[in-house]
Amino acid sequence: MTRREAADRRQGMLLLAPTAVALGALTVYPAAWVLWLSLQHRVPIFGVSRFAGLDNFAFLTIDARFWSAAHTTAVFTVASVALEVVLGVAAALAINAQRRGRAVALSFLLLAWAMPAVVAAKLFEWLYHPVAGLINVALGRHALNWLGDPGIALAAVTLADVWRTMPFVAILCYARLLAIPADLYEAAQVDGAGRLATLTRITLPLLGRILLLAVLFRTLDALRAFDIMFVLTGGGPANTTETLTVYAYRALFQTLQLGFGSALSVVVFVLVMGVAWAYLRILRTGSVAA
Amino acid sequence: MSLGTLRATRLVRALVLLTFAGCAGSPSERGPVTLVFKYARILGNADPLPSLLREFEAQHPGVRVKGEALPWASDDQHQFYVINLEGRSPGFDVMMLDCIWVPEFARAGWLLDLTPHLQPAELAPFFPSAVAAATYDHRIWALPWNMNVGLLYYRTDLLAKHGLAPPETYEALVEQVRLIRARERDPALDGYLWQGKQYEGLVVNVLEALWANGARLITDDGDAFPEPARAADALRFLRGLITTGVSPAWTTAADEELSRRAFGDGHAIFLRNWPYARDLFEAEGSAVRGKVAFTTLPGRARGEPGAGSTGGAHLGVSRRSRHPALAVALARHLTSERAQRAIALGAALSPTRQALYHDEELVRRNPAMPRLHALSLAGRPRPVTPYYLLVSATVQPEFSAALVGVKVPERAIEDTRVRLGHFLGALR
User: Which residues in chain B are closer than 8 Å to A253, comparing Cβ atoms?
Assistant: First the structure.
């Protein structure tokens, strides 16, 4: 190593240090602490604190409530992300095709997305109101028990989430659409491609990479979904809308079982890391055209 | 050591001793003392609390009381207390507590034991069930501040029109709903509204159904469902109310306000709710003004007479308060007869002192007070245990599953017992 390289390296380390310290203090240390807690029976307010080994995780394997929450989380994630992608792309294409009023349409989209999740949830609480809610009034005699029927409560919660987060996908896609050079479309026209062929051969492939990124963000958010179900249903009825994070919240902050709650958090953490890693691999291998 | 330095050391020691002696004296003599009182703000412009706090300051010169608002939702309040009390820097002296938290906080060592501060008969004027909720390990940890009890509201106009007296059993209630709805022929008229959403309110409603059927949720020793067959029958009955249409399908998503509004709009015959609803029904512009009365919750035909679940707020003193004597005095002042009368007049919260239910001024404002007294007296507290929140969080999804028909009651009860056994076992 030349002297110059060594100096460069030292300077690099120095510049990295603040980030490393911040990440260490704010992410690595708490994560390690949660991992340590998950190996204990720990309920501080009752003075319970003893090593439990893998007890908490062993209980999770036979805990019906945990498996129900895992199932709910999976269904919610797949359904909400799929709907968001389909609707988001459709909205982006629609805005792109619009001649006038693009700014207005975009600001309406942004409005929904900028709304805090709790506010959106409260809004839907009124929309889903069984007696006076707009949706049930419109349905008339076919009114549904949106938040009280175990068969549809999760769908109702998912719809509320899609309404709020679909604009995120739409705006990312719209930005990408603007960047597709017009001569590509002209060339396609010259070659005699129809509208469908243009969409499937040019537009969608070019959206691929940005869509994958949007899906990554949305999937990670959906796996950690908490606020919308916490406000709308509290996890009910019969726990059909209780996600892993809602279950972890109840254990950590309501019943104060820090050890057990940490074990749940560790599971969510591993899940999120695994999914992120898989997505990043796909992105890196470049299997999707830019 | 020279004589000079010895003298100097003695002087310093004496000074130090003097300083500490000064601290040990009455704090009010040493400049301003600030007490912090944490409570949930009372909505509306008639909040009687600020003037009650000023009154206390007038009686205790040199003491300032700061009222600080708690978060709005009960869960958030609990979380606030847990974080601040566990973190060893409470920053408040007197705190408003939901009565179900008192044994938990006492067991955690966060509350000052009030027993030595109390006169022998000081708690006699309060409702025994409220005092029971403030008692843990034979000691008193909080002063009851306001009272809540589950009530059965009914439409006096509809019952009178069809020549019916308020039902004493759930079976009679179901019959009356059938009869009235058959004769009224109003598809928008629901029968019996109650709270079946998966939350604390569901636990309260199910407890009342269990008690009416002679069943308990948990024994003092922590055994869940000591009468499993009766408990299953109670759950099945509640489910039946929904499947037979006596209660609307949306009962499984209903909390207090949802059911209170539907009844208040005139869309139901019966409603289970707390005393606060009465004021709203009797308010100007209410669709049911003058058409509503309340009575005790029904019992079961071959079970026990009905009783409402009690609830309410208590005032506790932080064990790390730096002015315990003053803090106890403030809690005592706020729970005094004068203060509770002012709160009942200004904010319509029910007092915990029984005599106030026959107070002339209060009865004039709310003629139903004496009736409310009898029902509050007959009310039963939820299980008084430090593990109440754990019990409640465990049973909520199981009760909800039984109500919506995802699990048969026996299964829900068995699953609850297994889970509770596991979690309570880990606490011992």
Answer: 79, 82
